[in-house]
Write a structure and sequence with these properties.
The structure is a homodimer.
Chain A: E1 9-15, H1 21-33, E2 37-44, E3 57-60, H2 69-80, E4 84-87, H3 93-104, E5 109-110, H4 115-122, H5 124-133, E6 141-142, E7 155-159, E8 169-171, H6 174-183, E9 187-191, E10 196-204, E11 210-222, E12 225-231, H7 235-247, E13 253-261, E14 267-273, H8 280-286, H9 290-298, E15 316-328, E16 339-340
Parallel strand pairs in A: 1-2, 1-4, 2-3, 4-5
Antiparallel strand pairs in A: 3-16, 6-9, 7-8, 7-9, 10-11, 10-13, 11-12, 12-15, 13-14
Helix pairs in contact in A: 3-4, 4-5
Chain lengths: 345, 345
């Protein structure tokens, strides 16, 4: 422990927390279970983030790609005595990966993998080549190269660096494909996979061991995120998560991958995310307590219990709906010190 | 009152309730406020509807276009002593409008407008011509006719009978428009409106009087539904709602319209919905208690207080996030009697 931590207190900073209210609450709940006087701090570039109005303290920060972002977050850590930073969006991961040592020297653990692993996750073309090199089945893709004369339609045309299904188009024939290729910025083409779509949320310890892996079937998707899902204790998918987490260089924390499990039993991986998946609350409700393990890691305790790996409920089903926080318009206008301290999780 | 109602009890049936958990809770809360021993019953074609697992009783019913649907709902009404049916999805509105008299003869009020009004709302081409005939500004559209040689791009190409933004495409030029026209079933073309997008939730009494009208600006939309919105006390939009509700033949209950308010101050209406809007909970939190007025209507009391019209808070902001209900997979399998009675709102 490089810093003196106040006995019994623990502060989590949820970064770019946006609408991840469920995740905020899970950390809050876990801190209570562990007997901590816990505090949840939110950093977001927008005051209309629902989490902004529910945390103990909320700070408006520059967008994560702004050069002043790391310093702004460091200032919050000092002011609030933050012990653990949990990044949540893809674009901020490289920034946190690049700065995790400077946060560590202030006694703050950042729940992020190494830069190398984040670089692999962030770019669908790098993901694809890394998966191929390491013997993981993946989806055939073309990007920036002339397409072969025979392409098995339908195909998916999407932005190379996109996320949350934004700009994803399905082309049934060459005419449609070429139409979308002309209109999507930095596009790539993938074969449309058949089979059942799964997300596997997994947790990698600081020693690079995969502590837990929870596959869930995506029964229904809304705006690119699972809205109905069910956990499935599928040994093959869990083993894939184990191999993946151990093969990625210095992976750490909550991660997930998405795949299609074909009738041939092969799980073809389409993407890897180096952060909490949007559907992670389902894995938590099934029994996989990633927030606890991150808090333990920040306290210097290594999680190393092999029974955790499948210590969660099969068939746990999540059915999502909208809830909301209601605020007055005036609460969205920035006060002088860019902070609001009256939240409640 | 055609039936003997049990003193102090009131039962609401939320039809095709799906993920409308907030609406379910608002009715539950309102019944409590009114001092009723209230019960919330859900009918849905799917057991994966989140509301199915939160109501006092839930019934799996055939899809609303199935000929056996009305009888199935009537059976539930008898079994559960339903006082009020609240339809929620566009496709079931014509069915309920056609059968509202047979429900009335059983002592059940259906919160739906006349067939004529529902027919106007259900078809974008009819909506458009009705609005034009009644002097409401609307958006220029073409459907099933040769397009003029000059079309001001960009345009929106969408399915004539679509909802929730499914299949809606934006075309920047003629080539794009023709591409989408070939691919969308029963398509129509609209000019892309500029200005600020508003939804106005309004309530029409049984006498056809518009009791309340609450415009909200759509700050952010997700999967076709408002995810961030703010109420705006805009007199012009409120008056439009009043004229609309009074002009529609025998309109009744919770309704809403969507429009773009241009810099010229003209509100061009794009659609009218004869049901609770997805964003209605915002109007409720601002102070417009439509559930209460529907319950009063079922009790034979007419709501007629002109001060309700603007008795709600300006600048009330809704910031939505996902919550979820977690159930075991086994709970999604139908029991013998197709009913589950252990819910809790």
């Amino acid at each position: 422990m490089p810093t003196v931590r106040q006995q019994g207190k623990f502060t989590v900073l949820l970064s770019s927390a946006g609408r991840r209210v469920a995740l905020l609450r899970l950390f809050c709940q876990t801190l209570k279970h562990l007997g901590f006087e816990g505090r949840l701090v939110v950093a977001d570039s927008s005051r209309t983030a629902p989490t902004f109005h529910l945390a103990n303290s909320s700070f408006q920060v520059p967008p994560c790609l702004d050069p002043s972002f790391p310093q702004a977050v460091l200032d919050i850590c000092r002011r609030e005595g933050v012990d653990l930073i949990v990044p949540t969006i893809d674009t901020e991961l490289p920034v946190y990966a690049a700065h995790r040592d400077s946060f560590a020297s202030e006694g703050v653990l950042v729940a992020v993998s190494s830069q190398e692993t984040i670089d692999i996750c962030r770019d669908k073309v790098r993901t694809h080549s890394w998966l191929g090199e390491h013997g993981f089945p993946t989806v055939e893709q073309w990007c920036g190269v002339p397409l072969p004369s025979y392409v098995p339609f339908p195909v998916i045309v999407k932005p190379r660096h996109g996320s949350a299904s934004v700009g994803v188009c399905r082309a049934q024939d060459r005419e449609e494909m070429e139409f979308y290729l002309r209109r999507i910025k930095d596009p790539m083409v993938e074969i449309e996979l058949t089979g059942i779509e799964y997300t596997v949320n997994f947790y990698v310890s600081r020693k690079g061991r995969v502590v837990s892996a929870v596959p869930h079937q995506r029964m229904e998707v809304r705006a690119g995120e699972v809205s109905k899902g069910v956990t499935v204790k599928h040994g093959g998918l869990m083993e894939t998560a184990r191999r993946l987490g151990e093969a990625l260089p210095q992976a750490f924390g909550a991660m997930n991958f998405q795949c299609f499990l074909g009738v041939d039993g092969v799980a073809r991986i389409t993407e890897i995310n180096g952060r909490f998946g949007g559907g992670y609350p389902l894995a938590y409700h099934a029994g996989a307590d990633f927030p606890r393990w991150l808090i333990e890691a920040a306290l210097g305790r290594e999680v190393d219990r092999p029974e955790y790996f499948d210590q969660w409920d099969d068939g746990c089903t999540m059915l999502r709906y909208d809830d909301a926080v209601y605020v007055k318009k005036s609460e969205l206008e920035p006060p002088n010190d860019r902070v609001r301290q009256s939240g409640h999780v």
